[in-house]
Specification:
Blueprint lengths: L3 E5 L4 E7 L8 E6 L6 H11 L1 E7 L11 H8 L2 E5 L9 E3 L4 E4 L2 E7 L8 E5 L10 E5 L2 E2 L2 E2 L9 H11 L8 E4 L9 E2 H7 L8 H9 L9 H8 L39 E3 L1 H9 L3 E5 L3 H7 L6 E2 L3 E2 L4 E2 L3 H8 L5 E5 L6 H10 L3 E5 L30
Parallel strand pairs: 3-4, 4-5, 5-6, 10-13, 15-21, 16-17, 16-20, 20-21
Antiparallel strand pairs: 1-2, 2-3, 7-8, 8-9, 9-10, 11-12, 13-14, 18-19
This protein binds fe (ii) ion (FE2).
Fe (ii) ion binds next to loops.
Length: 397
């Protein structure tokens, strides 16, 4: 079978979802390559549609033209993140080296170090279950594009290395191997190693020296999102830099913003209910409830924390894996007869955490909007909703 190929028009980026078609597991194990922040909902929808469980979210390199959703996908699906070890993506739970294999059900992909576009760039080879046969698919990131290749003029790029990666590493795959690139700007979707050997406008018929001269003369404009995207991608797309214009600890942006209607308990399935940040705060202050902040230690450190809350992560980096100490921690934190209100970043992750607390016998509520709400159209949080936005107490450090 072919991978599911998805396209982000704003950055011309291809994202790929691969799954184990023959798996008897339900949902079936899957992985995603180079997911894009703005396409999170689409990708979650595809996973739901095909009945897939995401095992891995993989980067081919630290991108300069879009922000990854790998960290968010890990939060939503429980997938682990993987990235080339030389890309500085320190939040990825698996740091890939050349030849490493990632399994999803009975299927696997193998990492090939193909530096040049960036020093750490990798391609991924998918056998598609035919272990004794030639590889059938290669995901080339920005190393080899259809009829072209990625640029080499920033992010530890090297034209010499790229020439070697394309002509020695990728071109040693069988001619029939399907090439799935990281981008295309002309509406093309796939190629083959054989077709690229004979028809790649950058490489075919050029010596190393000629290729280096050609790449050196390209004089491309800087990617629009370089400064923003690379640091964000080195954190798997999570934790945008702290914005000091968004109000500081003692001067809340928007005090008393909740209305009476919002301060009622919304019914929920599997736990006691959803509550507004203000109502959770009131319950907590009156001693009716314990406030538990289930964000990761890193999020609290980057984004800010609520003084006096119980800090107990539901999932933790690296890889956003379930915190094995959650059950014991929450039972120890909540005295008999008290409610527990659970706070996460946007009010989503605290839902499974509340369900689990309810299974453990607690009267558990999810705090809607979380600490800083969903991102707005400029990807800034704390502008639409959330604990901070509502003027409730918090501190940066
Ligand atoms: Fe790139």
């Amino acid at each position: 079978m072919n991978p599911i190929q998805l396209f982000d028009p704003a950055s011309s980026t291809f994202t790929y979802i691969l799954f184990d078609e023959a798996s008897t597991e339900s949902p079936r194990p899957a992985l995603i390559i180079d997911p894009v922040d703005e396409q999170l909902e689409r990708d979650l929808g595809v996973l739901r549609h095909y009945g897939l469980k995401l095992i891995w979210a993989i980067e081919t390199h630290a991108h300069a033209d879009h922000i990854t959703s790998a960290g968010l996908l890990a939060e939503h699906t429980g997938a682990q993140t993987a990235a080339p070890d030389a890309c500085g993506i320190t939040t990825a739970s698996r740091q890939l080296k050349d030849g490493d294999v990632l399994h999803f059900g009975g299927q696997s992909v193998k990492a090939l170090h193909t530096p040049g576009h960036t020093g750490g760039s990798m391609s991924l080879v998918w056998q598609n279950g035919q272990a004794n046969e030639a590889p059938t698919h290669v995901f080339t990131g920005d190393t080899l594009l259809i009829g072209g290749c990625g640029r080499t003029d920033f992010q530890s790029g090297s034209s010499e290395m790229l020439y070697n990666s394309i002509t020695k590493v990728l071109f040693s795959l069988p001619d029939s191997t399907t090439v799935w690139p990281g981008h295309d700007y002309k509406g093309q979707t796939q190629s083959t190693i054989g077709a690229e050997k004979v028809g790649n406008a950058r490489v075919t018929g050029r010596s190393l020296e000629e290729f280096v001269a050609l790449m050196g003369a390209l004089d491309l404009p800087k990617p629009k999102r370089l400064e923003e995207a690379v640091p964000a991608n080195q954190r798997s797309g999570l934790a945008q830099p702290i914005r000091h214009d968004a109000g500081d600890a003692n001067t809340p942006l928007n005090s008393g913003n909740t209305t009476k209607e919002e301060d009622t308990v919304q019914p929920a399935e599997g736990y006691a209910g959803d509550v507004s940040p203000q109502l959770a705060f009131d319950w907590w202050q009156s001693g009716e409830a314990v406030l538990v902040d289930i964000r990761t230690d890193a999020e609290r450190a980057w984004v800010g924390f609520v003084p006096g809350a119980v800090d107990l992560a539901w999932k933790q980096w690296p890889g956003m894996v379930a915190n094995p100490a959650y059950d014991d921690g929450i039972l120890a934190a909540v005295p008999k007869g008290k409610k527990v209100v659970l706070l996460c970043r946007s009010g989503l992750r605290s839902i499974p955490a509340a369900k689990r607390a309810a299974e453990l016998g607690l009267e558990a509520y999810n705090i809607m909007e979380g600490f800083e709400g969903d991102p707005n159209s400029n990807a800034h949080r704390n502008r639409l909703a959330g604990w901070r936005y509502r003027g409730l107490p918090w501190r940066q450090n």
